[in-house]
């Protein structure tokens, strides 16, 4: 079952697989929780039923994403004890408390108010329900805070001492607010909002292409695109500051991102748009770049010096082709997001936002790109950290469990792939059917048809989705209100 790979390689593949599956769900739920809080706030202020109907629709998507995020997160955490027990033994006194704080402050907050948010309509006052929604949204952001703090400490470790080969906390303030944390937290927050806003806008674009022009679809499209505009432009600024921080604290990662082999002592560094990095030859087989722009972006001067990969020992370099191209996928999609939002701004001015079918196709195609860019960004940051699990302190190979074998990890990896394909594949399919059904006006909703007493006892997040998907689709196909 080893598939011809070592236990270390398989353990890394297994963790990459599970964390990649996991991250798409928290990113969705973080963004949607804040979107739901905004919708409910708008409804309380205006009493416009459109906002309430949108809330009741998007909370179903949120419930599915939240449920799958919790399950996939628990599975991922077990690997710290099975495959990476040495990492837990050496660094657990830092990472353990940070993850505990996440459970105590964020998970309990979410769990305490989630039931009211999902099932509280008609049972509590509107203001109490909004408070519950707000607390869930705050809880998702607090969860992101602690997870990013832990991961950022692994990228730029500070505030610790080493005693008898064990990492011991020395300054919790320095640990939590380590050098890369503010930039990575802001970067991930903007990414989560981009994921959800593109999902909302892409879903609305689908229904616009199908002929719907009602307020539910138009409002979703408009709000989603406004958020894409804000967060995509903000992400450019955050990304610039994050890059400067990486240059200072993780120069090998930055050199791999840029495909930069030789330190530019007496000339400007170009910005490579295309390259084929060759790690054996320590050079790029082919490259296309813009002169001076690399130095200008990274040092804010035309001839700034940037350390090249050859200044680091070969065993201390990350996989350059993977880091180089994953970064360009992320940035390229980010530029398309900016283009999407600016085009939407132009169409708003012309009064053609809801009638330009070519733009609706563009928005539909861009719908899933938030997830692709998110995964590409995490590949960049995690592969770029290699060969360290705690940068400059613990090598990845030293964090592997001593007793684990390649056959064991290979077998568990195959099981994970099969189980995830069935369980999460079904969940994603279910979510896609909900998106295809689209939002409905109150007169068509399950709550209106059921009347008083239709609320169910909150047993699990998925209970919030209380109508058959086929029935919802049929209702939308039967009657599509137009302006």
**CA-CA gap between termini:** 60 Å
Structural class: mainly alpha
Q: Overall 3D geometry?
A: globular
Order of helices and strands: HHHHEEHHHHEEHHHHEEHHH
Task: Explain what you see.
With 483 residues, the protein is mainly α. The protein has helices at 7-46, 49-82, 85-119, 126-155, 172-176, 181-209, 215-249, 251-258, 293-299, 320-350, 357-366, 369-385, 406-437, 446-450, 469-478, and strands spanning 160-163, 166-169, 271-278, 283-290, 388-390, 394-395. It has 15 helices and 6 strands. Helix 1 runs antiparallel to helix 2 (49-82), helix 2 packs antiparallel against helix 13 (406-437) and helix 6 runs antiparallel to helix 7 (215-249). The protein is globular, with a radius of gyration of 24 Å. It starts with 6 loop residues before the first helix and ends in a 5-residue tail after the last helix. Mean pLDDT is 87; it is low at 444-459 and 479-483.
């Amino acid at each position: 079952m080893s598939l011809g790979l070592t236990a270390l390689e398989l353990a890394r593949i297994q963790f990459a697989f599970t964390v990649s599956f996991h991250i798409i769900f928290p990113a969705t739920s973080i963004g949607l929780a804040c979107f739901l809080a905004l919708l409910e706030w708008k409804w309380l202020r205006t009493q416009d039923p459109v906002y309430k109907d949108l809330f009741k629709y998007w909370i179903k998507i949120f419930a599915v994403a939240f449920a799958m995020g919790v399950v996939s997160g628990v599975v991922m955490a077990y690997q710290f004890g099975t495959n990476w027990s040495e990492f837990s033994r050496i660094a657990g006194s830092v990472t353990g408390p940070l993850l505990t704080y996440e459970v105590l402050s964020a998970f309990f907050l979410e769990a305490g108010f989630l039931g009211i948010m999902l099932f509280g309509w008609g049972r509590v006052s509107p203001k109490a329900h909004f408070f519950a929604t707000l607390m869930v949204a705050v809880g998702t952001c607090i969860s992101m805070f602690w997870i990013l703090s832990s991961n950022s400490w692994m990228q730029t470790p500070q505030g610790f001492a080493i005693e008898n080969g064990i990492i011991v906390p020395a300054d919790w303030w320095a640990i939590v607010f380590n050098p890369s944390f503010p930039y990575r937290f802001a970067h991930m927050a903007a990414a989560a909002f981009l994921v959800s806003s593109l999902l909302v806008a892409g879903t609305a674009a689908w229904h616009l292409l199908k002929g719907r022009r009602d307020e539910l679809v138009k409002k979703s499209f408009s709000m989603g695109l406004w958020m894409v505009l804000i967060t995509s432009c903000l992400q450019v600024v955050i990304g610039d500051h994050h890059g400067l921080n990486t240059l200072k604290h993780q120069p090998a990662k930055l050199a791999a991102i840029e495909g930069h082999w030789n330190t530019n002592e007496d000339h400007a560094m170009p910005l490579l748009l295309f390259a084929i990095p060759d790690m054996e030859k320590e050079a790029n087989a082919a490259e296309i770049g813009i002169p001076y722009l690399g130095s200008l972006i990274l040092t804010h001067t035309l001839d700034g010096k940037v350390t090249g990969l050859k200044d680091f020992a070969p065993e201390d370099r990350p996989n350059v082709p993977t880091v180089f191209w994953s970064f360009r996928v992320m940035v390229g999609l980010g530029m398309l997001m900016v283009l999407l939002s600016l085009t939407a701004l132009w169409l708003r001015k012309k009064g053609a936002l809801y009638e330009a079918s070519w733009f609706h196709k563009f928005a539909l195609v861009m719908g899933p790109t938030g997830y692709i860019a998110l995964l590409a960004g995490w590949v960049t940051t995690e592969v770029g950290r290699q060969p360290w699990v705690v940068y400059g302190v613990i090598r990845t190979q030293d964090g592997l469990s001593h007793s684990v074998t390649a056959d064991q990890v290979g077998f568990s990896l195959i099981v994970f792939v099969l189980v995830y394909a069935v369980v999460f594949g079904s969940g994603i399919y279910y979510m896609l059917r909900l998106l295809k059904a689209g939002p409905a006006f109150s007169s068509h909703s399950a709550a209106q048809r059921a009347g008083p007493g239709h609320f169910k006892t909150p047993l699990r997040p998925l209970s919030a989705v209380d109508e058959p998907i086929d029935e919802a689709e049929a209702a939308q196909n039967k009657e599509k209100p137009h302006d």
